[in-house]
Every structure is written in C-alpha cells, then in structure tokens.
Type-4 uracil-DNA glycosylase
Amino acid sequence: MPTVVLAHCLDFVTWRNATRTLILHDVAAEEITWRIRDPADTATPVGLTPPLRVDAQARATFGVPRTLMRLVEDVMQTGAPDRLDLAYRLVLRQVRGTTPSHAEDADGTRARHLAQEACEQTRAFRAHVAASDTPADALRWDRPGGFVAQCNARFVTLQFSFHPWRMELQDNMMQWDGTSLHLGAPLQDADPASFPSPALPLVEGMDIDRITALPAVAETARSCLVCAMAHHATQTVFGEGEATAPLMFVGEQPGDQEDRIGRPFVGPAGQLFDRALQEAGIARDHVYVTNTVKHFKFFNRNGRRIHQKAGVEEIRACAPWLQAERRLIRPRLLVMLGATAASAILQRPVVIGRERSRPVTLDDGTCGLVTVHPSFLLRQPTEEARTREYQRFVEDLRLAGRLIAA
Ligand code: URA
C-alpha cells in the first residue's frame, strides 16, 4: 500500500508531487494512506513510500487544469479531515476522464463547498487585518477556520509593508520579524513556500492606501487580476527606479518586450528614451519610470502581438497602483509621456501639441510636465521629422532637469 507522509498539515507541495506520481501509476484513492508527520518525528522521511519511478516524459505530459488545481488548493487550506483523499480523487477522475455529471457529483459538490468556505474565511480575515487599528504586534484572529490565516501571512506582511507584526490565533500564533515568518505548533518548522496559495489573489481586500513601502505595493500588484489584460499578459510590469527620485516618468503601458522581461521601457521606445535622457544629462538610475497601465494590452495578428491602446477600464483598474507610486515616491516633478498618461493624471482629455513643455500643478500639488511619448518619435515618417521631434523631446527633458534643479 503506498503511504504518503506530509511534512506538516499544510504541505501542499508534497501532496502535489506524490499525487502526480501516484496518478501516473494509476493508483486508486482507496489504496493510498495519507499521513501527516508528527513535528517531533524528524526520522520518518517525507514523501511517498515505497518510491515509484516516473520517467521524465510522462512527468512532462502530466497536466491538470488550473481551475482544478485552484479548487484543490482552496480545499487544502480548510483543514477538512478528508481533504487529502478528496483532492486526490478530484485530480484522478479528471486525468482518467471519469468526472461525473454535476447532479451526481458528491465529491465536486463537497469540494466547491469547502472552497467557498475558504474564500469567505479569507475575505473575513483580510477585512479584519485591513480594518485593524491595533498595534502590529498585538493582532488577534481567533475564529476557527482551518489554515486560512497561515496561508494569508503574506497578505499581512504586505499590508504592514514588511514591518514586524505578531498575531495570536485561536490555538497558536504567527509572527513576522521583519525578515522571516514564524509559526506556532503544529507548523513551527514548516516552510511557507510549501503552503497552498491563498484562496483569493493577494490584491483582493488589500488596502493599498495603507501600504507604506514601494516593494510591498509592487509585490501586491504582481497578483492583480482586476482587468482582463492581467489574464492575457505575461506579467505585471511595475515601475522601477529610485524610491526617492525627484523625477518620475509615466508612460502608457508595457510593450511586447517589457511584458516578456518584466521591466518598463526596455524595448525600442525605451531605448530611445534612454538615449534622450542621456543627451539631456539625466541618469536613468536616478529617476523613477513607470506606466499608467501595468499590463501589456495586445491582439494577435498572425502570431504577432500587436499593441492595443489602453482603455478606460484598464486605466481605472490600474489607477490605485499609479496613485500608490506617486504617494510613496513623492517626486518633485512628474513627466507625463504621451496622451494616455497625461489624460489619466490630469483627469481630462489632453492634446499633447497644445499642452506640452508647460509646467502644470497636479491635484496633489506636485509639478507636472506633459511631453510626447517616445514611441511617437519612432512613428515619424521621415528622417528629418524624426530628428526634429527627437530634439524637441530632448529639450523637454532638459526642461525637466532644470525644473527639479530649481
Ligand atoms: N511604452 C510605454 O508606454 N511603456 C513602456 O514601458 C514601453 C513602451
């Protein structure tokens, strides 16, 4: 009889690895014994006994839909006593193609019920953290509810901007000392990387206005799935640069290369931008560069990803991120590169030709400056126009340099 020993009650990674191996050997759920190792018993090895071999090719072809894995992760964090078996049966029947109809699906119904419970508890836990005005070292969460609190430790850490915090739980505690997470028994030696991920994206329920460190905002933005683009793009491309930069540049949205690499302004427009910055005597390392929208919006044409202008929906969805960047960087001058950035920040339609090169005061009192987007330079039809527009752009950057020096 195969036995799987998990390192602790939230050891999703061992469960997942063992499940893949056992399913590739077509082992029925009833044949498996799932055990959680006693924290004092470090002699018993974690994993599957007896070990079963799986060749690399079979391993590579094994795939389970993301929605099912999401359901399984949600079930795991409820702490329901039958969760390990139940989750195994759900994956096995999917791979065998024997999922019953909705009406006869007792396992599916139970799993969905548990997942809903995990979502509700996650929402309640996060609302409690976000509303809490107790000192960070005196937090309390004493409602029962499996391991939802532990799975959301990252949420608490981000909400407190990586500052130390401590939370008493119903029968144990968890604590972030500014560097690592410490958990009470029975999870005291557990690696949080082996936990199922929280039932809701990190951003859901996060009070972004309360975060006081830029890396915490950036990390939260990485799990943002608010707009449709977040589901299509490769990754969130957050701003980068000096956290105390006097000069902040805001573009439209990442392009194809930015989307692949994960950094703003690194593609053709970014390279031209870098050249112009250098010519204007501004070091890119000393400024902060970001975009109005943090995901690449595109459509597919013959396998090529073609840029699509960011719309109202994406701009609105991303507004809290840009707002947080502005609040935390507090630049002396904010340069709006192109119409998307300018109209999002000035909150009205902007005709660049009419408004460029003139300092304006923004809603938070910061000085603002509108100029063209570097990709406008790339679109010029002739060499002469390109040179002329490039020089005008460099002049605007020089003006920016003078405005922060003044
Ligand atoms: N265009 C932008 O607006 N931003 C980038 O990051 C790249 C191209």
Summary: Residues 251-255, 258, 264-265, 267, 269-270, 291, 375 surround uracil (CB under 6 Å).
